[in-house]
Design a protein that fits this description.
By secondary structure, this protein is α+β, with helices and mostly antiparallel strands. Helix content is 28%, strand content 25%. Helix 4 packs across helix 7.
Length: 440
């Protein structure tokens, strides 16, 4: 079985040395709690002077409030220091089997591997084995590429989905005797996490065999009812922009290399990700809501009517307490929240298949036409309610996308609108634990 045929690579993982406080070491993905800097201040207080992945990442809550170059220099200094001081130590080449129990007691399983960026393209229309699930905002990539280009190590919050209904890739590993690497409590309501070393050749081969079966063209065609369609094996569930940044950085490394053959062995060719089976019982899709700041509801409603009218769609605003009209034709319903109350926005005869597509198409134009307006993407109804109660803010609550429809939707329709879904609540996202060197 060939690892390259399924875009797989066996990494050499770096873990904190024995005696490190892993609860302080591990923090949640940097793109969470972006409108709640108080969360990150609490994390900083919790970490204190202990070694921590907090010092190796750039929380997005800080992107517009800190000196970018100074922050990046601090990250690089911490990375180099953790390596030179032996705080990070390599283990034998292999994967890491992960059990994550969230604060509600729900178990989610995953497998940390490296994926080959030669088999990935985030651009719309991609037919690669690895594809984005949402539209990529290229304006968000430069700072991420800058971070990676100055980094000596990577630490992933990327979660990549496989569609394995027969549970042939990840799940059989739990029946094998594996060495436990860590077992600890996560901070800030993150639950618990355990990791096991998958380093035996037979165990690695079983993963490759399972992925190879999923990638068989005939099996793929029968599963999705398509013909003459390139196989989609991996769908990026979380961290679309981080993986896109890794791809751009790898392309830079290739372009600048004088030895074009030797560069193909460069560690930047690969990206560390956690594979998760979309059929895992502990995997739940959650909607990603929107909050607008520095707006008035009247202006938003008026602009929305003007936006949809030329598209043969009609917008109806129904404040709370008023009856929602019964519809006999396609209609989308989106709940809105303002400091004055809440209600529903109905979009009759929508052009986009999903509510998130309709709303995002409008918001993109609205924010361009209204430079003072700002948008944030929020996990959790309660957070949206809180933010929408503050002054000139307005929130939108979106319905959830079924996880079982994801792969077929991507295959037939292409990428979803950005921020179309989330794999769990914010505190259920991937916490940083493992690292890997991305310099030779």
């Amino acid at each position: 079985m060939s690892l390259e045929n399924v875009a797989l690579h066996v990494p050499r993982i770096l873990l904190p040395r024995a005696g490190t406080d892993l609860t302080r070491w591990s923090v949640v993905a940097c793109d969470q709690f972006t409108s709640q800097p108080e969360y990150w201040r609490k994390v900083d207080e919790t970490v204190g002077e202990s070694p921590s992945t907090l010092r190796l990442i750039y929380p997005e809550a800080y992107l517009n409030t800190t000196d970018e170059n100074a922050y990046l220099a601090g990250i690089r200094k911490a990375m180099d220091g953790y390596l030179s001081e032996g705080i990070l130590e390599p283990i034998r080449d292999g994967f890491v089997l992960i059990e994550r129990v969230n604060a509600r007691g729900v178990l989610r399983r995953g497998l940390l591997v490296c994926l080959d960026l030669e088999h990935y393209d985030f651009r719309p229309g991609s037919t690669c084995l690895i594809r984005a699930t949402e539209g990529t905002v290229v304006e968000r990539l430069p700072v991420r590429v800058k971070i990676r280009s100055r980094a000596s190590i990577e630490l992933p919050h990327i979660m990549v989905l496989i569609d394995d209904p027969e549970l042939t890739v990840i799940e059989p590993l739990f029946g094998q005797r594996l060495t436990k690497l860590y077992d600890f409590e996560l901070m800030m309501n993150g639950g618990k996490i355990r990791g096991y070393h998958v380093d035996h050749p037979r165990a690695i081969d079983s993963v490759v065999r399972g992925l190879t079966r999923l990638a068989e063209p005939a099996r793929f065609s029968d599963r999705y009812g398509v013909r003459n369609t390139d196989v989609l094996l991996y769908a990026v569930g979380d961290g679309n922009h981080s993986l896109a940044s890794a791809k751009l950085f790898w392309e830079q490394v290739k372009e600048q290399a004088s030895d074009k053959a030797a560069v193909m062995s460069h560690p930047a060719r690969y990206a560390l990700v956690e594979l998760v089976n979309v059929h895992d019982k502990g995997l739940e899709f959650e909607p990603i809501h929107r909050v607008l700041f520095n707006v008035t509801p009247e202006k938003v409603f008026s602009a929305m009517e003007d936006f949809f009218a030329p598209k043969d769609s009609e917008v109806i605003v129904v404040p709370a307490g008023e009856p929602v009209p019964v519809e006999d034709k396609p209609v989308q319903s989106i709940e809105y929240l303002t400091p004055e109350g809440r209600g529903r926005i109905l979009i009759r005869n929508p052009r986009w298949n999903l509510e998130v597509g309709s709303l995002q198409a409008f918001l993109d134009v609205f924010c361009t036409d209204n430079p003072g307006a700002e948008i944030d993407y929020i996990h959790g109804d309660d957070v949206v309610a809180d933010l929408s109660s503050r002054g000139s803010a307005m929130g939108f609550l979106l319905p959830v996308l079924s996880k079982h429809d994801l792969f077929k939707t991507i295959i037939l329709e292409g990428v979803l609108p950005r921020k179309a879904f989330s794999m769990g609540h914010a505190d259920e996202k991937r916490y940083y634990v493992e690292c890997r060197k991305i310099v030779p």
